[in-house]
Structure formats: structure tokens, C-alpha cells
Amino acid sequence: MQRRYLIITAHPDDADIRFGGTAAQLVKAGHVVKFASLCNGNMGHQTMTPDALAKRRYLEAQASKEVSGICEYEVWTDVGDCELTPSLENRKRVIRMIRKFQPDVVLTHRLCDYHADHRATGQLVLDAAYLTQVPHYCPETPIPAKNPVYGFVFDAFTDPRPFRPDAAVPVDDWMELKFHQLDCHVSQFYEWLASEKGVTIDSARMTWEEKKAYLDKYWGVRYVDAANQARQTLIETYGEAGRAVKQAESFEYTPYGSKVTVEEFRELFRVEPPAK
Ligand SMILES: [Zn+2]
Q1: How far apart are alpha carbons 162 and 69 in whole angstroms?
Q2: Ligand 1: distance of its center to the CA of 30 in Å?
Q3: How many domains does the chain have?
Q4: What is the pTM (predicted TM-score) of this model?
Q5: Which of 94, 106, 185, 191 has its CA 20 to 30 A from that of 261?
């Protein structure tokens, strides 16, 4: 049965980082995936002007859409970085997005994430989760027959409690594709985020092998940490094969939408077990 997945994040690249490998596997299995970014990314650079950067990041997101095979990469081009708030207007916008897409699964950031835009996004999605089911709220956009299941994407924050990997997806065999997804966001991975790490590189002069080595050095560890944190879940889902998984993306269930068991939540993310 085909399912529909909607990930609502703050910036154009957040979904790629947290869900890219899983999204590609779900698409391959015949499911439909949409990424959404509620900010336009206009502050994520050390030299580019915000207007020029927002335009560039929109195009980077669309390039990633093609690489990932997802149906849409929506970007709220009118909302600047660091300015997203859980306003009534934005709440209604998120409700309409969810109702129109008719997802089976909605993913977002946890409320203890580091960035104000991430927290505002998570708040907006959780606020929308119940209100999508209220008929007199945004009545011009009909309520779909199914109420989605909601979940959070992996983060490493521990206060007030660590992320709980209720579902985990091996991405060992999909790292090449994940690097291609990240590679689309040149302004981020080779410029802004590189500068934040004190690294100066010229991606235009790098070979693909050099780019992969760089992306793996600074970003690959995230998926190793996620796999190790989710080891028990990986073993319960994939048996012995789960023990050998090196890199994973993981997801936490939240009961704000349709209520399912952890086992049912896990099944929503089951993919082909990794090749030996
Ligand atoms: Zn972000």
C-alpha cells in the first residue's frame, strides 16, 4: 500500500540531513515523500546578501528534490530565517499544508532543538496536529479521511531528555545518495557550515571523492551516532542484520495525531534490510 510522508522542517537542507536516506528508500519502495522548509534560508551565509541567498537556496532545494526523487520541496520563500514564529497565520498555513497533502506520516523537529526556527516549526506542527481535525478551523480546506501519525526526526540534544529512537532506518547503502543530497546545498555544506567549523574549502575545485570524504568527515558521524543510539531498535526491526548497521536515520513517535503502537510506528519506516 502506498503511503505519503511529509517532513516539515525549518530550513532548506534540514529534511535532507535528517530524512534524506530514508526518503529515498521510501520513494524506491513506491511511497510519496514531500519535504517542506518553513524558512527561506536567507541568513545561512557569511558573505552572501539575504535576498541573493534565499534565491540560491530555493534552487539548491529543487536540485535536491531531483536527486531524492521526492514529489515536492516546498519552501516558504516569504519567511526569513530567524523570524519564524508559531503565529496564528503560520498555524493555519501548516494546517492547510497537512490537509492538502493528506499524509500518512508527518515528521518535524523536537521542541528542545537548538535553533529558534526549528523549535517554532516543531511547535507549529504539534499545534496543527489536533487542529487539522477541527472542522470549523480553516473550513475552506477539507479534512482528509485519515489523521496522520506524527513523529520527530533525530537530534542529539539531551535536555530535557535524549531523543528516543522508536524507529530506525539503515542508510549504510545510501550514503552515496545522501552525499549527493547534501552536495546540492553548496551554499551550506561547502560554505556556511564549513565556515562555522573553521574550514575553508573550494568545492568547485574538489573531485567527487574529495567532496565525499569531506562530507563524511563532518557529517557522516551523525548517522553513526544515530545507529549506535538505535542499536536495540535496529536489531528488533532487522534481526541480526541490525547489529551490523553502521549508519542510520531514526525517528521518535509522538501521539499528537493518530495513535499507533511503537511496533506499528516502526513498520511505517521499514525498508529493505541492508545488503551484507
Ligand atoms: Zn535548520
Answers
A1: 31
A2: 28
A3: 1
A4: 0.97
A5: 94
Residue 113 belongs to a domain: yes
pLDDT for residue 273 = 78
- How many whole angstroms from 118 Cα to the centroid of ligand 1? 6
Identify which of 152, 104, 129, 143 has the alpha carbon closest to the alpha carbon of residue 264. 104
Q: What is the pLDDT of residues 32-88, one digit of tens each?
A: 999 999 999 999 999 999 999 999 999 999 999 999 999 999 999 999 999 999 999
169, β-bridge pairs: 249
Distance 135 CA to ligand 1 centre (A): 32
Cβ 166 vs Cβ 251: under 8 Å: yes
Count of CB atoms situated within 10 Å of the CB of 66 = 11
- How close is the Cα of 140 to the center of ligand 1, in Å? 31
Quote the domain boundaries for residue 142: 4-267
- Determine the distance separating the centroid of ligand 1 and the alpha carbon of 119, expressed in angstroms: 10
Cα separation of 71 and 172, whole Å?
Answer: 24
Q: Is residue 273 part of a domain?
A: no
Q: How many CB atoms lie within 10 A of CB 174?
A: 24
Phi-psi region of 75 (alpha: psi -120 to 50; beta: other; left: phi over 0): beta
Residue 272: inside a domain, yes or no? no
